[in-house]
Amino acid sequence: MAPESIVDHRARAALEFRWADGTQHLAPYQLLRSSCPCADCKAQRAAQHDGQARLLPSAADLRLTDIRPVGAYGVQFVFGDGHDRGIFPWRFLRELLEKNLAQALTAADHG
User: Fold this and answer.
1) What is d(CA 20, CA 60) in angstroms, rounded to the nearest whole number?
2) Which residues form the Gamma-butyrobetaine hydroxylase-like N-terminal domain (predicted)?
3) What pTM, to 2 d.p., does this model score?
4) 27 pLDDT exceeds 80?
5) Which residues contact 20 (CB under 8 A, 6 or more apart)?
6) Fold of the domain spanning 5-110
């Protein structure tokens, strides 16, 4: 299910997603860019596990230039480095954001 709203917090380099159940997630651009589900990015992530470095813009240099709806299915982000191939289905996006939040909370508990 699509979020009720997406707010771009450019100064924080993050998007805020508000869902119908009242849940809110803050998604840093860096998380979205590094989690791109396109075939090219998946292949690059697999290569990274084989010891090959993956070059992405630094968090400070990463910009989001457009957000394109993809029907009722999901959304496509256009980044300042020209990358625009990934389509983020709503379910994938929500699971990514919930996983990221859980990891952040676990790190905070152990830090």
Assistant:
1) 31
2) 9-94
3) 0.86
4) yes
5) 1, 3, 4
6) NE0471 N-terminal domain-like (3.30.2020)
